[in-house]
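cache lookup: miss for this entity combination. No prior model stored, computing from scratch. Input as submitted by user K.M.:
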Amino acid sequence: MSQSDAPARERVKQALRTQRIETPSWAYANSGTRFKVFPQEGVPRDPYEKIADAAVVHRLTGAAPTVALHIPWDRVDDYADLAKHATDLGMGLGAINSNVFQDPDYMLGSVTNPDPRVRRKATDHLLECVDIMDATGSRDLKLWFSDGTNYPGQDDIRARQDRLATALREVYDRLGPNQRILLEYKLFEPAFYTTDVPDWGTAYAHCLELGPKAQVVIDTGHHAPGTNIEFIVAFLLRVGKLGGFDFNSRFYADDDLMVGSADPFQLFRIMYEIVRGDALRPEAGIAFMLDQCHNIEPKIPAIIRSVLNVQEATAKALLVDAGALAAAQQAGDVLGANAALMDAYNSDVRPLLAELRADLGLDPDPMAAYARSGYFERIRAERAGGQQAGWGA
Amino acid sequence: MSQSDAPARERVKQALRTQRIETPSWAYANSGTRFKVFPQEGVPRDPYEKIADAAVVHRLTGAAPTVALHIPWDRVDDYADLAKHATDLGMGLGAINSNVFQDPDYMLGSVTNPDPRVRRKATDHLLECVDIMDATGSRDLKLWFSDGTNYPGQDDIRARQDRLATALREVYDRLGPNQRILLEYKLFEPAFYTTDVPDWGTAYAHCLELGPKAQVVIDTGHHAPGTNIEFIVAFLLRVGKLGGFDFNSRFYADDDLMVGSADPFQLFRIMYEIVRGDALRPEAGIAFMLDQCHNIEPKIPAIIRSVLNVQEATAKALLVDAGALAAAQQAGDVLGANAALMDAYNSDVRPLLAELRADLGLDPDPMAAYARSGYFERIRAERAGGQQAGWGA
Amino acid sequence: MSQSDAPARERVKQALRTQRIETPSWAYANSGTRFKVFPQEGVPRDPYEKIADAAVVHRLTGAAPTVALHIPWDRVDDYADLAKHATDLGMGLGAINSNVFQDPDYMLGSVTNPDPRVRRKATDHLLECVDIMDATGSRDLKLWFSDGTNYPGQDDIRARQDRLATALREVYDRLGPNQRILLEYKLFEPAFYTTDVPDWGTAYAHCLELGPKAQVVIDTGHHAPGTNIEFIVAFLLRVGKLGGFDFNSRFYADDDLMVGSADPFQLFRIMYEIVRGDALRPEAGIAFMLDQCHNIEPKIPAIIRSVLNVQEATAKALLVDAGALAAAQQAGDVLGANAALMDAYNSDVRPLLAELRADLGLDPDPMAAYARSGYFERIRAERAGGQQAGWGA
Amino acid sequence: MSQSDAPARERVKQALRTQRIETPSWAYANSGTRFKVFPQEGVPRDPYEKIADAAVVHRLTGAAPTVALHIPWDRVDDYADLAKHATDLGMGLGAINSNVFQDPDYMLGSVTNPDPRVRRKATDHLLECVDIMDATGSRDLKLWFSDGTNYPGQDDIRARQDRLATALREVYDRLGPNQRILLEYKLFEPAFYTTDVPDWGTAYAHCLELGPKAQVVIDTGHHAPGTNIEFIVAFLLRVGKLGGFDFNSRFYADDDLMVGSADPFQLFRIMYEIVRGDALRPEAGIAFMLDQCHNIEPKIPAIIRSVLNVQEATAKALLVDAGALAAAQQAGDVLGANAALMDAYNSDVRPLLAELRADLGLDPDPMAAYARSGYFERIRAERAGGQQAGWGA
């Protein structure tokens, strides 16, 4: 379909209107590499301030109404109060992200640790996260395990899978009726020889064994070089096991750059598979989440930019002329089919998105609106004292 | 265990005595890259001569009693006669490898082709391979699909999975009681954008859906950079879905070099997971096959060397002191556990293997024995005329 | 600058008007992978027909006035006659590509072969290529060496460098006053352990040693995963050693897909460095060449598409607002600087290019114009008999 | 040569006797990933304690007589006193490693920062390091720049090279007669889009421009996947520009694991090129340094193991029968040449090294000797209080 085709534009805008992108509380806080965390001005000092920043992103984009929490970084005494704070700001609390990688006990693993005491402690933390979900009303428990080994022989690869399965089962059985596990995989880091959930196949196999409330989450930065991520998207959608995304982008390893910044064409191809699999609408249950680190760029505008990048890729995916594409594919017309896809990708969808924002009563240019808003100047002043939030706090 | 420990040496030798490595008929023939196939002297001209060469490898190593066939490269009028030829030489026929990548009809795919006529043709070829298995008594049907796409949009990723599943089901249902499918995966080449079975997860999911007679085969050269292959071995063994190996080695892509030549430590780690999973003994049903190309080195000695490399890696794996390793692992002794593994790897097992060969009445040095045998001089003379076998013949 | 800025549009069009993209004779012929070459209809049978096809590409795009030759694939008795044939079709002959990888003698290397006789033969071929350049009036001798080894120890890495330097020196000294060497590098394939010119550093070091008439050529498909190609472009421009490009694209290894099809953003970044280094204008001496394989798609339209892809990336690069970018860079405004670049990339330059073509009296849509032209139908009929050209012919 | 050949054994032992491996002060301190630094017991609290630990490694291995310092982590008031402390422990101070990546000013780069004030500050730090070298008598200034960018467009790639060249020149001109620059390169991290010295080619080009006192240092963990490191070793030795190594090992990115633990065959191949290039003897001026992180394993034994791994790889490299290898290479005997190399690699050199240690009056098993020594129990008790050293201290 052509962009100049008015009904098509309306259809695309209608689909975009329903898209929800969840931003992560930790992306508003300081982050860095093992070499250095460069502190920035105005960074939140607690979960309340993180949610306040997330609310700004939503206010400007209209597309980011929930914020994911990370436990214990976002631990508070009263989650109901935190949820009310979010509601007051027009926000909701999203996925609960567990953390079993920062306690000294987890040096050799959490739920896969050879020591049963440590496994118990780690599993208890995961169960605590479900308790928090009950309090926040969150649907998704996101599980990422840093577990693995650094040296051949360090531990038994297969025994660690048994331990993993045991812990996952216990947590799965604790889930409420509207809750689910999103199991994340990652090729490497912080473990450097084996990772206990290194790829989508491992996550898929465990989710299949667990049952319908366990699904795979794809972090776009967690693959081996050359991996075709949109293939995984298509495959998991086909078998009903795609739970969502941790969006970010990478040139090398798990760079955690702004989504769409390293390979915007890849992001488009991913979103095309989402559209093709009819998985964009909220009822499809795919969680579109960001998981990024803004090490050197200001955090709030970086997150706004990321939301826009996802929207632009989605808009292009929606522009693909499905009929022309299918006809060319069926005819074995390699260049024609490729051209049908590229025609959408090469379109400039920014005017259409500006129009959508105007329809919604938003500023057509969220980046400029943020710059003009004075919000940064305010938080820089207000948050000058105290302890900035980061990965360790 | 120490090599100087006599009962341990006997135990290791006993295990090695049972190991069977299958060599591929096509490795005796000419091969090359897309740039050039360099013909060599003495290369077989038909399947009978390939089997004769394989018999030499077995006669000298005592460890390679079967030869895999590739259809149509090894198509003959009378498979019973071919099997008799093998038996007469002390050999058996092994896995049947299908070929759905060289007919002009397969340019855009075989069983996943958008054209149903081509899919039918490809599936029929796979069924013909089962007919051949009936004739040869082969247990394993090895399926590798070159199917995929070169350009984004070229075809529908998900529809191709549906087509693949349909074809696999039809072939699976045709299998006899003692036959099975070994489904191979490969990251890329000859397809350069998507491959329809690109990774172990995809192969595993299809095999699971098919049933107990479908298992995954790991080609050691078919992974993305950084993939931990021994993890996949351990994982598939745990879930009962490892069917076998296509051994070779690689520095870059699918280099198809002699197994163990690029990363002998990796081969050792793979064989260690086999030993640890008690999967070395023939009853475990793991097919240890070579799948290599000897583009620039003489073929028969290259294959002998490859068999020796697998044996040496296996011997080292068997030397691992399982008790010491488990104790160190359980104690969280990272360096101690690593050392238990490395102690075996750093051993020189060549004397032990020479001793084993002497026990079996073989020459302790198969490479030297081949050089002395005059076999090459004979085939060079005898096979001077005619059409040499290659990938296309 | 904005696209709607009329003087800017004129400036961009003016720059695009000077861009020259050379197409390779072999891309019009059959190609494939080691698994299969799928023949296509209408493929040229000799260099004359290849040039005729290249002339069609130029006639439709106005941007591809020269065609590169490959010796011996394009060997003819009378190069003056071939050059006249080109001129008659409005074309010129471009770079001469040597081939020292297909003679049986080159199995273990050409100019780096341990055997001095083979080295002599290979060097003589390179000298013959300079003779041909004298006849065709070509400026550039493109040297790609497939030389390398497959196994550790196979040959002496350092001695091979000495042999390489010797051959390069002899060829360099034979160059005429307006001739130069373009030295290509490649990570791997067909050699799988070492390649004698594996990276830009090696090519650069040799070119530096040779002198001003030796420059590095970047094949965009010849790098290790993760390599930042635009960095190399910027670096070589800075030191005056960039000679040109072999354009194509890749997802995995040396896929040789249509340039811009796998990562259009990368192509844009490369062209941005060209623009930033003021190297687009012909006097800068950068050769913009395609080097691709159209294994499954029709060749002529694939080459037209490739030329358009380079033009579109160039147009976007020219649209970058240099002043805004420099200001943001100097201010340390990470997001602002990135946005200045992305603003150009996200533009749809197809209307501007259509306008340029109209200015030049060309059809604004070369792909459609080709489809309508009837050329394919004609060559399919005319070239039905005879031996199709390919890599081996 | 055979190990059983007594003169050969003596020759190998003689060569090993001269080998010097420098250990890095920071490897004795705490380290980790961006996710967590797990503190260990007994870790040094200042440079004096680090040197004390390094002295233990040397006392047990006889091969690690110097320790590299990192400024500012090892900044002290009186470097002469620190040097005397080392001497008293039988140690020397080795390379001075600069640090221009941890000051908040360096968020967007140090010597390549767009801000001239920051560049001045960074260059001044490098000059301060030369002052320290004057005080410590160190020969080598190791320069690693984390400089780079995270996003396309963030800064001007080429201008950063100009700034880099300017800073390097100033430092080079400050070097004393017996001092040199070792310039390190790294593909990525902490920068994720461009790195200003990403590969050996860039380091080589700058060193060449600087002059004879600038050489390239190879960190074995700093390459793109698939890079052939021994090729780089051979190449840089040939052109006289190899300055030394930062040894460690990797499976994925810059894992900083114990050298030889991930790919012992690669380490052997590297050491073979050193032996083949006659660069093992100290007069050749190659600095063999470790640069590792012991995130989860105890530090001192990990470093002992690393020293042993380098020694074992070196011993195997020395065992290669150079005559047999050269003969096979010259004859084009691919398998024979490979076998000549592998024969040495497959040898168990541990008995020879134990013999060498006995000759030197050392315990034949340094790992066991350390475990028995009680040193760890002592430092665990003595260093219970205070602030442990780490990357940030």
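stored under new cache key. The mean pLDDT of chain D is 97.
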